[in-house]
Specification:
- Chains A, B: One of its GO terms (biological process) is iron-sulfur cluster assembly.
- Chains A, B: Pfam families: SUFBD_core (PF01458).
- Chains A, B: Belongs to the iron-sulfur cluster assembly SufBD family.
- Chains A, B: InterPro entries: Fe-S_cluster_assembly_SufBD, SUF_FeS_clus_asmbl_SufBD_core, SUF_FeS_clus_asmbl_SufBD_sf.
- Two copies of one chain form a homodimer.
- The first copy, chain A, has about 300 residues and is mainly beta.
- Chain A has one domain (about 5-270).
- Helices cover about 10% and strands about 55% of the residues of chain A.
- Chain A contains three helices and 21 strands.
- In chain A, the strands form two sheets. In chain A, strands 1, 2, 5, 6, 8, 10, 12, 14, 16, 18 and 21 form an eleven-stranded mixed beta sheet that branches. In chain A, strands 3, 4, 7, 9, 11, 13, 15, 17, 19 and 20 form a ten-stranded mixed beta sheet that branches.
- In chain A, helix 2 (about 280-285) packs across helix 3.
- The interface between A and B is medium-sized, with 32 and 32 residues.
């Protein structure tokens, strides 16, 4: 791996060289390196591009890293990764995709991640997207994430896209069984002429299921963002959707949530706000010696943390 | 007018006989009675069913009542009413439709109301829908309301549908100019197998425009409700959407709002909640001597007031 690869790996997965435990590094549509552990077995799919990750029941305090790197111009890949997580696990899964495109052609990653989370298991899943490079070629990422939560299962799903992705269409679907819980945190910054669409379906099927969506975004320059977070309650359940967006320059933001109750014991709440940075916040930081631009960056950093 | 007519008039327009000022009473698709005033002139349209209401500039503290009664089974009407309100007015407009259907056939009222509200004018518009009768025939109301607000104009739009309407599809559109303001209050109760769909587009076009949507609903039995309140900010403006629903029995409620900012100085906020009546609220009233059902009714009354 070269300098660019290492920089991308740090940006998207916080990886400083080879990680501990199981991992699978994909580079320019090829397997770069892989390691399974005793409890986490990674195998290539034989019928389509992608991998299967089997995590044995009872696996605790282990992690698996599966970053994807694209450093060539003109790549267009579709990858299917399936996660089979046994009962009573407690694992961290770190995904993410970094594109360095110096060329004239578009480079694109499409990934479909499907999780089967066993009874009473806890999963922390994080996925960072990052793009860079001086070429005119676009950097595009279209991730789909589908999560099946069995009874008492829990997932914390964190997605981050900060700078460099020209176009993204995200789709996230969670089906929560009895007493299952999901926390979805989305952070998104677009600039230039970028566009981002994020669609979510959170289906609270089981009694006692609960979910929270926390979405924070910043749209700068003439970028465009559209959000469709949908929360559907089919039983005695609790769901909360919270979307906050900062709009700047000539940007446009649409937020179109849905809360649907199909049961009188479903309790669903939604809040959304779109606005610019408050002038007095900038002023306060400027009196502490920051320039207007530094103050703005400080506020945006805090907002997206 | 007979006893049923008078009861309906009281229910939908708070009218105890003939009102003061201008009015137009429509009954079973025919003109029942009409009066213009010096400043408010009502004329029948010549090209299609409906009336034109011209309100002279500077008209203040006057009102116009335009209730619609349907007491026959099998009526299906489409009515176009246009309101031309001059500058610097301050008027109350009371509409509403009551259907008493004792027969086997469906009785249906479709109304399209269009308002042109002149510079700096204030309008209070209220519209109540009510249905009754022992027949198997359905009672259906599909109102459309379109409001053009000129610079500095204000409208308070209050719609109420409480009991008796089997099916309703409401559409409300407001286009607000510079410094114009709209307050939209919607109250809706459905029961039995009723269905209600309410769609709104509030377009904040002018600088300084602001709008609030306050929607409160109760869905009982196996009734269904769907809400699409949309607020679009095209300039420096402020918009607030608030939807609260109480769900009971086997009812279903979907709330699909949209806030869209096309300008960095647009500030838009949305809040929605769906849930059942809090158990401790009922308990508290029961300790004061109310039965459970009385407590429930008391809470619903308060919620829809």
């Amino acid at each position: 791996m070269n300098k660019i690869d290492l920089k991308l790996l740090m940006k998207i997965a916080g990886m400083d060289g080879t990680p501990k435990g199981a991992f699978n590094i994909r580079k320019n549509s090829q397997l770069e390196s892989r390691a399974s552990s005793e409890n986490i077995i990674i195998t290539s799919k034989t019928d389509q591009p992608g991998i299967d990750i089997h995590i044995k029941p009872g696996t605790k305090k282990e992690s698996v890293h599966i970053p994807v790197l694209i450093t060539e111009s003109g790549i267009d890949e579709m990858v299917y990764n399936d996660f089979f997580i046994g009962e009573d696990c407690d694992v961290d899964i770190v995904a993410g995709c970094g594109i360095h495109n110096d060329g004239p052609e578009c480079s694109q990653h499409n990934g479909i991640h499907t999780f089967y989370v066993g009874k009473n298991s806890r999963v922390k899943y994080s996925e960072k997207h990052y793009g860079e490079g001086d070429g005119a070629g676009e950097r595009i990422m279209n991730p789909q994430t589908v999560v099946h939560l069995e009874e008492g299962a829990f997932i914390e799903l964190e997605t981050v896209q900060i700078r460099g992705i020209d176009s993204t269409k995200r789709y996230t679907k969670i089906i929560a069984g009895k007493d299952a819980e999901a926390i979805i945190t989305e952070r998104l910054l677009t600039h230039g002429k970028q566009s981002a669409v994020s669609e979510m379906d959170v289906i609270l099927d089981g009694e006692g299921a609960n979910a929270r969506i926390i979405s924070r975004s910043v749209a700068q320059d003439s970028s465009q963002q559209t959000f469709y977070p949908r929360m559907i309650g089919n039983s005695k359940c609790f769901g909360h959707v919270q979307c906050d967006s900062i709009i700047m320059g000539d940007a446009k933001i649409r937020s179109i949530p849905e809360i649907s109750a199909n049961c009188a014991d479903a309790q669903l709440v939604h809040e959304a706000a779109i606005g610019k940075i408050a002038g007095d916040q900038i002023l306060k930081l400027m009196t502490l010696g920051l320039t207007e631009q530094e103050a703005e960056e400080k506020i945006l950093d805090g907002f997206l943390k």
